Amino acid sequence: MEDVNILSDEEEDLVVPEESKISKTLSDKTTRTVVLLVLSLLFMLQICSMESYVSPVLMHEQALKHLVSVYNDKSNYPTVYKEAFDHLVSVTRELENYKLIFIRTPTTNSTVASANLALDTYEWQPWITSLRKDSYASVVQTADDGHDFILAYSTQDYAVTEAIINISRTLFVCAILSVASIYFTKDA
User: Fold this and answer.
1) In 3D, which of 55, 56, 81 has the Cα closest to residue 66?
2) Tell me: the pLDDT tens digits for 55-103?
3) Per-domain residue ranges for the chain?
4) 59-154: CATH topology
């Protein structure tokens, strides 16, 4: 069998011409344009990220931890616990994103904290049963006596904002690629 790597006589005599000055100039311009477009994409994608505009949700978790710690401190149970509960509800219901929609805690109407307390459940619109699982998030904390504190908040506004940013990012990338293709075809 003949060796595949052996060049024919015609291929050996083939001389590759040197690149012209015009070709070098166009190649440099194209390379410069590509580098600038890639750098602008890198910077713009960071600007178009969701984390640039919305901070991560820590408030609900911290507020529920505080409520549980107040509940665990039985010395000032009825008054301070009720105040902490009312404050948690009022603050988290006023949030622009991540509104409180559901909370279940041991009752705030009792004067003594005990293992036999009834559970109070509060729910606001949009009802948690009407939402998809990815449209809300929940936080659970357990008290020293075994009671579970459950809090759920809506993530619908966050999802809408994230969708708008992602669409904007996609349109920006399409625009950059369109401009790049126009430059490349013009140079060719």
Assistant:
1) 81
2) 666 789 999 999 999 988 877 777 888 899 999 999 988 888 788 899 9
3) 23-52+160-187, 59-154
4) Ribosomal protein S3 C-terminal domain (3.30.1140)
